[in-house]
Structures are given as C-alpha cells and as structure tokens.
Amino acid sequence: MSLSFAAPSDKAIPLHVVSEDDFATWSKDQSASAQAWISAQGFTGASGQAVAVAGEDGAPAMAAIGYGTEKSRKRGRFHLAGGAAKLPKGDYAVVGGLSDQDAPSEALGWLLAGYRFDRYRKQTPLMANLVAPAGVDATRIEALAAGEALTRDLINTPASDMGPPDLEQAARDLAQEHGAKIAVIAGDALLEQNLPMIHTVGRAADRAPRLIDMHWGKTGPKLTLVGKGVCFDTGGLNLKPATSMGLMKKDMGGAAAVLGLAHMIMATGLKLQLRVLIPAVENAVSGNAFRPQDILTSRKGLTVEINNTDAEGRLVLADALALADEEEPDQIISMATLTGAARVAVGPDLAPYFSDDPDFVSALETSAAEQADPVWRMPFHDAYEQLIEPGIADLDNAPKGGFAGCITAALFLRRFVTESPYAHFDIYGWQPTDAPARPKGGVGQGTRAIYAALGPLLRL
C-alpha cells in the first residue's frame, strides 16, 4: 500500500471540483454530450458524488466530484475522498473548484482514502490516483498520510500479533527508518531502573512489560511524546465485561498515535530534539496480578492507592511522565485511550485535550481547523484535585462517584509533570463507522493538529 501522489502528466484526467451552488454555471460550460452524460448520471454537485465522462476512445476524458454546499461541508471533512472511490482507474489532476486553503486537507483525504488494512485479507485498492494540486507540499502531505497509516495499522492489529514485544519491534523499525536511537527496559529491569508501576501493571502477562525510549535529533527545542501502550486490557482483577473488552486491542492507541506523529516529525526533518516514551504492557489476570487496595510507589515517589485495576493506563503513563519530566524538555505531550468518560463527553470524533498554556491552545486550535483534525479543550479543574486524594495514599487511581472521569485522570497525570510544559490528549483511536478517508477501525486523532502546531509553539 503506497499512499503517494501520482506523477504530474499531460495524460492525467482533468478533475473538476463542483459545488451544488456552482453546478448550473459549471454544467453550461461543458459540451452538449458531456451535459447529457452528467445529467443521465444524476450528478448535481452534491457531496460525495462523482462522475467520469468518456472521450471518443471510451476512456475517461474528464471527471467531476461533488463538493456539496457550505453547510454540508461543515458537517463533514475530506469531501474529495468521498468521491475518489467512485472514479474509474486513472490519474486525476484538479483543474478547478478547489481553493488554495482547502487543497492540502482535501489532498490528504484523498491519500487516506487509499488506506487498506490488508495484513490478514486482500483488499480492493483505490483505483483513482491524484496528482498533487498546485501549491500543495506533496512531500509533507505524503509524510502525514504515512504517519496516519502507521497509527491505523498498529491499532488494527490484534493483540495476538501486537503485544509488548511487537510494539517494541514497530518502534525499532521506525527508529531504523529514520536513524533514531532506541533503548528498551523490560521485565524485572523495570524495577532496577525505578519504573515500578509499569512493572506492576504488566507483570501478570506472559509477555513482559517494557519501556520503549526513542531519541531523534540533536539540535533545537526538546519535545517528548508519551504514549499509552496497553496492548490488551482485560481490566485486570476488576475484569471488564465482554461488551467492554471487545475493542481492547486498541488500548495501545496512544502509543500508535505518538509513533505515527514521530514519523511525521522525522520524515519532514523538523528541527527539534524528539524523545518518544512508550510504556508497553498487557493488563492481564494471573496469580501475581496487582489487586484492588494495593498501594504502589511510583518513580516520582508518590504513592497510589489502587481502587480499580481497570484504571491501569494512568499508572504506566505516570512513571513514563516522571521520567520525561526529569529531562525538563520544552514540551511534554501524552496521548492515551484513557477514559470512557471522554467518549461520553465528546463522542468518538473529537480528541479532547488538556493544557493550561495559552500559546499551546492557540497554536493547536488554529492547526486543528487547518488540518481537518478536530480537537476540544477540556479543563485541568483544580477544584477536583481533592477527588484524587484518598487519604491513605497520595493519590487514588479511580475516584468514586463517576463524575468528571476524564478530568480526574488528567489531573492524576499532571501530578507527575512538575518541571515542564504539559499537555494531555485522551483519544478514542477508533472510527466506529465508515466515513470518507476514515474506514471503520483504528484511526489517528490529534496528531496532525499537534504536528502543525509545533512550528509556532516551539518556534521552529
């Protein structure tokens, strides 16, 4: 699978992007035979429609994709991708109807429409290839698409083939591709290296827990990405019901997201010093599994009372965040499929995030709109700090009451970052239904927005 643009060519099929509002005017400019064919196909410029008009030799001579109305475009994204799959085989070049502002995101959407998860079954490829529209940075868009494809592949792979060793190998492959350095601390060495909560959460599984630590870049500001790598989450001794366990292969979505983002950064050569930390574990059930009411001591020295073994993600992230903070980078960002409360709050399509830095918020909100990668700011609400303080220990990993679950989880994580600017993303990492450029399955969230925000945020 290659998510890349077609080479420019005089033989590329002209592609018109036609909105419903402009359809009548555009149609009048076409030949009589083309008008007849377009009318017969019922093409009106509605979003997701596509039509190809044959030339004298029977091959497509021109094509059009519907761009809908301004209102319909606000209710979705990647509108060209919706029509790309309906076009016959060929290379297509946009000749009108697409603004310079929309061209990058629509071009990205077209590439992402070509994504197929074909590890276990052959999939029908996208037949229509796009020539990069004028003014679009093709190399950058292809890097974004490749990073997103990596994230999707990792999430879509079941835990039988994506356990902690496999996630480690994926990180090693990425490091080798870009000349990054990587180190891994696994098994009992986690205790020797003062990463006790990562060890505790993962010790019950047959495949040993580990911390993956990747470095790239020698100059520029320091950015550390921390991704939750729970390769499967049974809930531990607080066992999940079957309905909640069914999608838990995606509980390493935070790790998948930061690896995809790392590819975007390295492939485009951003001038920064990148560190990626992934605590990779399975939350399994065994005789040595950690228990409710256990009290754990973290790398930072804070003690944590375990009131639900199914709130394990914040435990492994806590040790990784404490390690990240010791280096005092210019920015720490954590990404995790952390709480169901976040899904209740904003649904599957938005990536909720937490940050108290107005510069980070401003840069991210601007880039999210430009990248068609929606995010939503949630509060680090200090008044809820008392909810994560059980009394018997410094912190409670699962406060009672059920209120503000994503906020209390974020506040818990913030306790482990005291020296560095910090932002946290509580993503879903899963597309529940097919949508243009986003087939059902694993999906990246927030990563393109973060990538585009790094320039103004870190003054690259």
Automatic annotation (TrEMBL):
Cytosol aminopeptidase domain boundaries: 308-315
Biological process per Gene Ontology, one example term: proteolysis
CDD domains attached to this UniProt entry: Peptidase_M17
Pfam families linked to this entry: Peptidase_M17, Peptidase_M17_N_1
GO molecular function: manganese ion binding; metalloaminopeptidase activity
Alphabetized UniProt keyword annotations: Aminopeptidase, Hydrolase, Manganese, Protease
Domain of life, source organism: Bacteria
Phylogenetic placement of the source organism: Bacteria, Pseudomonadati, Pseudomonadota, Alphaproteobacteria, Rhodobacterales
Protein family membership: Belongs to the peptidase M17 family.
One cellular component term from this protein's GO annotations in UniProt: cytoplasm
Record protein name field: Leucyl aminopeptidase family protein
Keyword set includes Nucleus: no
Species name: Sulfitobacter sediminilitoris
